Amino acid sequence: MPFDPSQAPIVFGEVLFDCFPDAEVLGGAPFNVAWHLAAFGAGPLFVSRAGEDELGRRIESAMRTRGMTTAGLQRDAVHATGSVQVTLADGEPSYDIVADRAYDFIDADALPASADGALLYHGTLALRGAESASALEQLKTRTDAVFLDVNLRDPWWSREAVIAELDGARWVKLNADELAQLAPAGDGPESRAAALIERHGLDHAYVTLGAEGAFALTADGQRGQIRPAGSVEVVDAVGAGDGFASVLILGLLRDWPLDRTLARAQDVASAIVGRRGATVADDTFYTDFVRTWNGA
Question: Quick one: CATH architecture of 10-293?
Answer without folding.
Answer: 3-Layer(aba) Sandwich (3.40)
